């Protein structure tokens, strides 16, 4: 393709790109620099560069960032997007228009102040060759979107011309509910505690503790009586829980501020964020599976959470670890349970979801096996510690495992169902946290059936329906405790239609 | 789908591999065994005898349970003696393929067919023990008609 090799890209990055290049480089260097300053001040002998070391590094980084900006070119070639980096060590990358799936933007506070965006060009193969263009002004992003998508679908009108319909918009009230449901604050608190502990700030000072215990306020507490002490303890725990929940709410308000899910042509777009504004395109033909999660708190608020798996997300091996890869693809962080089917239908337009599918139960003997298994596992874990702490009382704990295991087995088998519809396979599981996964049949990658010796003894098997893009832990559908012949039939049916 | 066995040469490959790893473990056990007079040779000897017996007896059993079948839709591979599994992969889902051969396999004229998918857990599906030429032919047959998008 001579025309493509001759093509020289001419468009440049935004004039202030070096600022972002520099800030990324400084962020990467921050820890070594702190260490350098920290250890540097300890030694009297600070080497030949002494106090100039940090300015020298800074200037070097600045020059590198400016160099990168000056030598970076991109352009719209006859067949694809062409990106040229470097001048001495030159790297030219071509990304065919047809293979470009998404052009996503991410904008932090500084980006928004300067009216620019970081652009990610995503392709369907996942990871390579995916370009990160930092930064372009918004008109350039618009132009890129229009050109790329006009080229990739020559017969169709330019994307920007289509009207955008809003499918979901989360007002503040919903975000507060989301914060209450999703206990993200807890993770932050736990991480913070870990960090404090690691840095040695969280060790209890015995002298300080002694002085507190002997102080007059401690004596006053002791004089309050048992009931009052218990009440104070409960108050403390409750206020800690409330504080963590409030932190979760604040995090939700910041992360998902003005969350909007819109539909334009066949694509879904997601915008959210208060400080860092994220715009993602979820192309419906890239959606591999839809997950609906409903915890106990979700049910109290009559809400559900919807995620999608996109092709290419799970495949690593990109040049830089991209934060987007590990980020869940939200269809709706939270939405009213009754609106979920409409949103799922928007994400999977090719599938008919109007009729309630024929839900099938697990194997008849599944309940007994789950009961035995969970009772044995719970006893194995609990017996040792229970005897250690409670001595004779341990018998109560160990025996109470039996009814609890029965309850778990009963509720699990009652709520776990699978269904094979004309164009999708669905799986509903769990009783405390209920999950629903819908995989279109033409998105199935591979199927596997496995059976342990225990499974074979009770003529059962497990089936795993593999899909792309979800990461090894949550992708696809894994149904355990199916009757062996049912699992076989299901696998054969899915195998025949996969990729058709 | 009709399932068939792979080349019996794989039994030899597995046996030799088993022998080598049994010897490695024996040497490790000898090096780390407690220096008790007269008793120290027992753990390594035990490991060596059980390891060698296992390395000799297990491969024919594993071979009996390793089967594969190809039809117009794709390929299915069955394996495992105690924990049995069967993977079915439609040919449109094959991203790319490898046929690899280690030194032991080369001596027995055997190759391993590796099929890569865009999936999440079954990223690579392996079928060991094919006659090398057969593996190449199977690869070509699977690729010839499987011109899908992959996702």
Walkthrough of the structure:
The complex is a heterodimer of chains A (500) and B (151). Chain A has 18 helices and 19 strands. Chain A has 500 residues and is an alpha+beta fold. Residues 314-326 of chain A have low confidence and may be disordered. By secondary structure, chain B is an alpha+beta fold. Helix content of chain B is 44%, strand content 26%. Chain B contains four helices and seven strands. In chain B, the strands form two sheets. In chain B, strands 1-2-3-4 form a four-stranded antiparallel β-sheet. Chain B has a three-stranded antiparallel β-sheet with strand order 5-6-7. The relative contact order of chain B is 0.17. The model of chain B has no long low-confidence stretch (mean pLDDT 88).
Summarize it:
The complex is a heterodimer of chains A (500) and B (151). Chain A has 500 residues and is α+β, with helices and mostly antiparallel strands.
What is the secondary structure topology, with strand pairs?
The complex is a heterodimer of chains A (500) and B (151).
Chain A: H1 2-6, H2 17-42, H3 53-71, E1 73-76, E2 80-85, E3 91-96, E4 100-107, H4 109-114, E5 116-123, E6 131-137, H5 138-152, E7 164-169, H6 172-181, H7 184-199, H8 206-214, H9 216-223, H10 226-255, E8 260-264, E9 267-272, E10 277-283, E11 287-294, H11 296-301, E12 303-310, H12 323-326, E13 329-336, H13 340-347, H14 366-390, H15 394-415, E14 417-420, E15 424-429, E16 434-440, E17 446-451, H16 453-457, E18 460-466, H17 471-474, E19 477-483, H18 484-497
Antiparallel strand pairs in A: 1-2, 2-3, 4-5, 4-10, 5-6, 7-8, 8-9, 9-10, 11-12, 11-16, 12-13, 14-15, 15-16, 17-18, 18-19
Helix pairs in contact in A: 2-3, 6-10, 7-10, 14-15
Chain B: E1 4-5, H1 9-32, H2 42-65, E2 67-70, E3 74-79, E4 84-90, E5 96-100, H3 103-107, E6 110-116, E7 124-131, H4 132-145
Antiparallel strand pairs in B: 1-2, 2-3, 3-4, 5-6, 6-7
């Amino acid at each position: 393709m001579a025309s493509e090799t001759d093509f020289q890209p001419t468009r440049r990055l935004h004039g202030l790109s070096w600022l972002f290049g520099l800030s990324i480089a400084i962020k990467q260097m921050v820890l070594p620099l702190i260490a350098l300053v920290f250890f540097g001040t300890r030694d009297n002998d600070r080497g030949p560069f002494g106090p100039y070391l940090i300015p020298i590094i800074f200037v070097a980084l600045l020059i590198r960032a400016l160099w990168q900006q000056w030598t970076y070119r991109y352009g719209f070639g006859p067949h694809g997007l062409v990106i040229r980096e470097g001048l001495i060590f030159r790297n030219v990358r071509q990304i065919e228009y047809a293979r470009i799936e998404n052009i996503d933007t991410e904008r932090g506070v500084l980006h928004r102040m300067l009216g620019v965006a970081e652009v990610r060009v995503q392709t369907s193969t996942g990871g390579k060759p995916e370009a990160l263009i930092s930064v372009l002004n918004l008109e350039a992003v618009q132009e890129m979107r229009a050109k790329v998508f006009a080229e990739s679908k020559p017969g169709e009108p330019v994307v920007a011309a289509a009207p955008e319909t809003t499918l979901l918009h989360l007002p503040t009230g919903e975000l507060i509910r989301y914060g209450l449901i999703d206990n993200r604050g807890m993770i932050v608190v736990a991480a913070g505690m870990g960090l404090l502990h690691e840095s040695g700030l969280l060790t209890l000072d015995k002298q300080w503790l002694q002085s507190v215990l002997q102080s007059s306020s401690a004596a006053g507490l002791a004089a309050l009586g048992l009931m009052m002490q218990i009440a104070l303890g409960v108050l403390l725990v409750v206020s800690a829980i409330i504080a963590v929940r409030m932190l979760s709410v604040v995090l939700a308000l910041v992360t998902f501020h003005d969350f909007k899910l819109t539909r334009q042509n066949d694509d879904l777009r997601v915008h959210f964020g208060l400080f860092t504004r994220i715009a993602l395109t979820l192309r419906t033909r890239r959606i591999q599976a839809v997950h609906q999660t409903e915890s106990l708190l979700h049910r109290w608020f009559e809400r559900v959470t919807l995620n999608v798996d996109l092709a290419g997300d799970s495949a690593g091996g990109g040049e830089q670890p991209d934060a987007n890869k590990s980020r869940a693809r939200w269809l709706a962080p939270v939405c009213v349970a009754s609106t979920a089917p409409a949103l799922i239908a928007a994400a999977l337009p090719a599938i008919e979801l109007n009729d309630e599918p024929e839900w099938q139960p697990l194997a008849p003997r599944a309940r007994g096996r789950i009961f035995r298994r969970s009772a044995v596992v719970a006893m194995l874990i609990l017996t040792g510690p229970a005897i250690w702490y409670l001595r004779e009382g341990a018998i109560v704990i160990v025996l109470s495992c039996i009814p609890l295991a029965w309850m778990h087995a009963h509720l699990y088998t009652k709520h776990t169902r699978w269904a094979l519809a004309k164009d999708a396979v669905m799986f509903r599981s769990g009783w405390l946290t209920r999950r629903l996964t819908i995989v279109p049949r033409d998105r199935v990658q591979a199927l596997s059936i496995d059976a342990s010796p225990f499974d074979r003894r009770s003529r059962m098997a497990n089936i795993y329906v593999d899909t792309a893009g979800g990461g090894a832990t949550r992708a696809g559908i894994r149904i355990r405790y199916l009757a062996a012949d049912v699992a076989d039939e299901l696998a054969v049916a899915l195998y025949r239609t996969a990729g058709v | 789908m009709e399932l068939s066995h792979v080349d019996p040469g794989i039994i030899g490959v597995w046996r030799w591999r088993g022998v080598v790893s049994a010897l490695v473990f024996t040497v490790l056990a000898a090096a780390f065994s407690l220096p008790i007079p007269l008793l120290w040779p027992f753990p390594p000897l035990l490991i060596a005898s059980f390891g060698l017996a296992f390395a000799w007896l297990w491969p024919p059993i594993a071979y009996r349970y390793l089967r594969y079948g190809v039809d117009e839709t794709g390929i299915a591979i069955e394996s495992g003696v105690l924990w049995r599994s069967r993977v079915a992969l439609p040919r449109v889902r094959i991203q790319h393929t490898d046929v690899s051969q280690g030194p032991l396999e080369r001596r027995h004229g055997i190759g391993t067919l590796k099929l890569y998918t865009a999936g999440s857990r079954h990223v690579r599906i392996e079928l060991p023990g094919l006659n090398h030429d057969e593996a190449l032919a199977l690869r070509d047959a699977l690729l010839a008609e499987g011109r899908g998008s992959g996702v």
